[in-house]
Design goal:
1 helix, 114 residues, 4 strands, alpha+beta
Length: 114
């Protein structure tokens, strides 16, 4: 007499739950890493935007009107120094929050003095 078996054994169920758990934990870790990278990208983009705004303001003002200074905008601190010569050289440092500490980005620009 042969018995037909219906369903799963306890070991098969435990292995399936274990595999599902490992996959779910992997997806959660990947989601956290993606969120962290998106936040860092936003902060980096914000710093570049502030540097671009400072550069456009300097070009619009003209060589004689540009001076060194600093400002805080959207939680980002920017400091710039201007060196006058044939061109007004602008060295801009933008400090933003990184993953574990403050990160400083440097941007260089020049405005022609004619």
């Amino acid at each position: 007499m042969s018995k037909s078996r219906h369903g799963f054994t306890l070991i098969e169920v435990i292995v399936a739950i274990l595999l599902f758990s490992v996959g779910a934990l992997g997806m959660a870790a990947a989601s956290a890493a993606i969120t962290r990278q998106m936040t860092l990208s936003l902060l980096r983009s914000r710093a570049a935007s502030i540097a671009r705004d400072r550069d456009e303001t300097a070009h619009a003002a003209g060589c004689a009107e540009i001076s060194s200074g600093s400002e805080t905008k959207q939680g980002v601190v920017s400091r710039w120094t201007v060196t006058h010569g044939l061109t007004a050289s602008i060295d801009l440092e933008v400090e933003r929050r990184g993953t574990n500490n403050q990160v400083a980005d440097h941007f260089l620009s020049a405005v022609p003095c004619s």
